[in-house]
Every structure is written in C-alpha cells, then in structure tokens.
Amino acid sequence: MTVTIVGSQLGDEGKGGVVDLYGDEVDVVARYQGGDNAGHTVVFGEEEYKLSLVPSGAIRGKVGVLGNGCVVNPETLFAEIDGLRERGLDPDVRVAERAHVILPYHRVLDGIEETAKEDSDLDAGTTGRGIGPTYEDKIGRRGIRIGDLLDPDSLRTKLEYVVPQKRALAEDVFGATTDEAFDIGSLYEQYRRYGERLAEEEMTVNAGGFLTERIEAGENVMFEGAQGTSIDIDHGDYPYVTSSNPTAGYAATGTGVGPTVVGRGEVIGIVKAYLTRVGTGELPTELGSVEGQTPEDGGRPEMADLATEIRDEGGEYGTVTGRPRRVGWLDVPMIRHAARVSGFTGLAINHIDVLAGMDEVEVGHSYDLDGEEILTMPPTSKQWARCEVNYRRFDGWPEADWEAVAAEGYDAIPENARTYLEYISDELDTPIYAVGVGPGREQTVIVETPFA
Ligand code: IMP
Q: At 266, which helix (H) or strand (E)?
C-alpha cells in the first residue's frame, strides 16, 4: 500500500505534519523530487525538528529514502543526519544512486542567474540552494550522480568535463569571479570523501528495487512530495517555479516504482486554509502586502494588517530561508487545478485555527479572465496576472481549545469552520481525511486513516 502526499498550493501547506500524522503505519517514507530547498517542521513530543532534505518520517524511526528524482547536497544531508544523531535519534536514510548531486558551483550559479534575471523580472526568488542549475545539468546529461561519488574515476572524469564549462559560464557570460567552488581538485577530494561516507554507512540504494521489495513484502510506503503544485515546473506558474515536479505523477518517475503502484494507493492533497507564497510571481488573492501594490494592480493594500496578523499567527516565515511569506486568501481555482493534476483521493486541510477569531473569511472562488468566468488556473503567468478574483465570504469561527477539538473529532470543529471545510471538499469533489488545528500531531482531527 502506498500513500502520496502532495502540496496543492505553493508549498508550505504543512505536508511534514501530515506525513508525521500517518507515520505510525508507515514503514518507509520516500521523497521523489526537490532537494534542500524544502523545509518541513515536525513537532514530536516537546521537540521541534526542522529539516530540509531528510524525509520527515526519519524522525519517527522510519526508513527515509531520497529517490532518483531528488537532487542531493551531501553537505546538507550529513549535517542533518549528524544533527539528529546529536539529539539522540538514529535516522535510517537511503539515497538513490541515480539521484543527482548538488555541487557548490550550482549554488553559486543559482545566485548569479537570479541576479541577472532581476532586470527582466524573471527571477523566481529561489532558495539559492542550487536546485535549478543541478536539474539543468541532469537534463543536459552532464550531471554528477550519487553513484559517481562511489566511483572516483567517474567523478574525476565528469568534473574535468563540466567544471571548466561552469567556470566559463560564471566568468565569461555573467562576469563573476570564481573561487574554489569551481576548482576541480578540491571538489574531487571533498566529494570523493562524501562518497566514502555514503559507502561506509551503506546509504546508497537502487531506489525502485528497494521500494518494490518493501511494497511486495507488505510494507507501507509513503511518497512525500516537497513544494507544491503551483510551483511545479510543468503545472505551476512558470517561470516562477521550482525545477522539479511536486505533483503525484512524479512519485513514480522520481522513485522508480510504476505509476500503477502509485495509482493503486491514495493521493492526499494538502491544503492550507489560506495561501502563502515565498518567492516572486503572481498571487491574485494576495492580502496587499507587496510594497507599492494598489487596488488598480488587483492588490488589496487595505488588508495588509490582516496579512501581518495571519503571518504572525501562522508562523509564516520560510523554514529554509527565514523569509516572511506573502499571504492571501484561499485560491480555489488553484486547488481545483491541483486536484485534477494529481488525482487527489483525500484532503488534509491545515491551519484553520490560524483563521479563528475573524469576523469573516474570504476565498477566491473563481476568476474572470478576459470577460469569461474560469474555475481553474490558466496556463500562463500573464493570463494569471489578468485574472480578476470573484470572492465568496464565509462567517468567521471562534477560537477554540483546539487540542480538545482534535481529541473529540470532526463534529467538535466550530460549525462555521465546518461549513468552510465542506465547501472546499465539495468544490474539489474529494473527501476530507484530516483537519489541522495546530502545529502538533495531537492538534489534528483525523477523519480517515489512509493505510487502514
Ligand atoms: P528553488 O526551488 O530554490 O529553485 O526556488 C524556486 C521557487 O520555488 C522560488 O519561488 C522558491 O521560493 C520556491 N520554493 C522552493 N522550495 C520551496 C518550499 O519548500 N516552499 C515554498 N516555496 C518554495
């Protein structure tokens, strides 16, 4: 049995908490895309863990797999593993030999190109972790894979081919000065050592084979998507996106199990009850927090204070970068699009506690685009920018003792909040499996257990 967890918005929907919620029944948690650009916060007992690469299930003693679709920065990987060990945990993390490696020059080039793009407003506001340049090299068939770190000759041959190109790109195209991030000798030594450690700790696997054996043995596997649908390289707000596919189809490609295996399982869409965005790009339901935004731009500057309230109440600051997140009302065309792309079988709706205490809660129900009402996100960012939002208003719900609500179950959720939740479920034609009413595992109302 498999369960795939997918972000239905722009990332930061609280996927880590949902992975953790169903963690008891899970034997293996596999990531299928992205790298240390992701940030998940998991609260376990009194402890809070912030991870960017290691799958969150590893905290609970599950096997964590970084699939072939991931891009892996070994420095981050070992820093996170060492950090967990220092806190008394013993994470079991496996890495696909087919996964690509993020090298220091990828991070440098990520920053250089973002700056170069700024004048044309093409910068995505990346996390600076080298994600895009690493995927570029993968597709360009010049990437270095985890398997190459285990084979020093192969590592050297590839570095000798690729590093001079990267140096020329940085220096001659972008006019930057380069340092040891572009030095073949020191890269070779450092990454060969990472390979030795991976081998010593027996961390590398053929992910597809490893996972298939586990599934055939009757174990439960969870595929943990990072980021969200609207920053998917194919289905998101291109070019203001990440360079991988967070949507469910990639759970198969990015781990090496068949799409029929993923499709026989559940696909749970994670929805935050409102919206946040950490990078650049449009946000039609934004609560006017962008500098200089006016009602004529479609912004709602009069709601900037509300955005600040939600940001502070929801702790909406980047896990990886610490950046304050932009805030908007729930965008229903966005999540209808997500439900179709990934074929959600269930929903986990988070953070309804953050909206408690407001007189009124709004949602963007549909858009008007060039005189026509549309119900899902249009395919280009220019079209999305032209969309005018048709809002619907819901009566607010009061603060509650959310832990008690979680213990009592769905019917204990304040009535107006249930009306809001059921509207979302009806619009996506997908049942609610869980409702997040706080950051901890105990602050979740469980309606359905997908592994049961
Ligand atoms: P990159 O993934 O670092 O290349 O960044 C590309 C875009 O994706 C930027 O707008 C980032 O802010 C956004 N992004 C990447 N990872 C996350 C995440 O985990 N949560 C939210 N946004 C993200």
A: strand 266-272
